[in-house]
Amino acid sequence: MHKDINTLFECLWNNYLEVTPSAKKVHQLLASSEQGDDIINDHVAFRTFNIGKVGLDKLAAHFLALGYEEKGEYHFEAKKLYAKHFEHPDDTQPKVFISELLVEKCSPALQALVHKMVEQVDAGAVSADDFLYSGTHWQVSHSDYEALLAESEYAAWMAAYGYRANHFTVSVNHLSNFETLESVNQALKDAGFTLNTSGGEIKGSPEVCLEQSSTMADKAEVSFTDGKVAIPSCFYEFARRYPLADGKLYTGFVAASADKIFESTNAKVQCNA
C-alpha cells in the first residue's frame, strides 16, 4: 500500500486522465491561474463489488492505512448499492467515497458473470500499491458488457474499467473565479460540456448543506475479447458545501443526490441529455 497520500492521489489522477481527457479542459476553464492552485479536490469516488476478495473494506484499507477515518454510510436500494465515505484528519485532503454493488440482490446471470470476473483477481493484487488504479483484472466480451448493462450500468462500468477513480470532484467553495454552482454549470455549458440532468442540473440544495453537479462521462475505447468499442468512461463532479449550525462546512453526502450522480456514466441518460 502507498506510504504517501499525495503520491497516491497523483497516480489516481494521472490514471483518471487517461480515460477522461476533458478533465484537463475543465481545469483550464475553472482555474484562476495556470497553476490551478484553486482547483481543490472535494472527494474521489470508487466502485467495487461486495465480494470478500474485492469488497468495499478492501479498497478502504488503502485509505485507512494513510490515516483516513470512516464517517458515513449510504444505501441505494434501487441501484442495489451500499457506500461509505472516509475523511482524513487533514481536511485539505480529499474525502473518499466508496460504493459496492450488492451482487446477491442481482439476477443469477449477473452474479455468475461478476463472480467469474472476480475469480480472475489475484488475491495479492488487492493490497498492492497500485490496486486502486490497476484497472481490470479480468477479460470480458462486449456481449457480456451489454448483458450487464441491461441490468446494472454500475456492473457494466466495473466490467469495462475495473479499479480506478470513477470521478474526481472540484470543490466550488475553493474556486476564486466562481461563487455558485450555477455559475460553474453555466461556464461548463458555454464551453460545450454536457451536464448530467438526471434529477436536475443541480442535485441537493442549501437546505441539505450540499449542492452537486457533474459532466456526463467522456468516452474511451475499451478492448473487449471480441473487439474494441468506445463506451462511457469517467466524469467530473462539482460540489458546493454549506455550513452547519456550528459554522463548519458539511462534510457528508446526500444519498438522494449521489443516486443521480451515479447516472453520469449512463449512456442512456447521455442520449437523452
Automatic annotation (TrEMBL):
<dbReference type="GO" id="GO:0051213">
    <property type="term" value="F:dioxygenase activity"/>
</dbReference>
<keyword id="KW-0408">Iron</keyword>
<keyword id="KW-0560">Oxidoreductase</keyword>
<dbReference type="InterPro" id="IPR009770">
    <property type="entry name" value="HGLS"/>
</dbReference>
<dbReference type="Pfam" id="PF07063">
    <property type="entry name" value="HGLS"/>
</dbReference>
<protein>
    <recommendedName>
        <fullName>2-oxoadipate dioxygenase/decarboxylase</fullName>
        <ecNumber>1.13.11.93</ecNumber>
    </recommendedName>
</protein>
<keyword id="KW-0223">Dioxygenase</keyword>
<comment type="similarity">
    <text>Belongs to the 2-oxoadipate dioxygenase/decarboxylase family.</text>
</comment>
